[in-house]
Amino acid sequence: MRGARRAPGRKRAAKKTRAVDATMKIAIFEQSEGANHFAGRITGKPLGTAAVLGVATVTNTPTGLITESQPTIYFKRGTLRLKATDVVEFQPDGSIKFTGTSEILGGTGRYRGATGSGTFNGALPPGSSVTVGTVVTFRLGGTVRY
Hints:
This protein is an all-beta fold. Helix content is 0%, strand content 66%. It is elongated and about 55 Å long.
């Protein structure tokens, strides 16, 4: 119930910093000029399972792409908003390497006022492309405080 107050003497739990060890699997479901729209799922510690939805702006580089996004992660008890930068490198063997960083910008519900940062990486095998229908699995690491 919005606007409800806590019972007298009941305090909000103290914020703790937690290590992130998770996997995120996303699929590109739409491409528009200079952007990839994606959706997926995150599983792992400390947050459990959640849905992720975002739009990544795409900039071409001599060796691949740089994407910047501000995805939202949807949990049962709230959301987290992130800022992510991903370097997409096309390898000589035709595979694709993804490496990036993320920063937690805040959240709602249980994750209100959350902070943190991390790194992620993933890869696609030779012959892959970054187009509609592409599914990428990322390993996530870092910290989150909520």
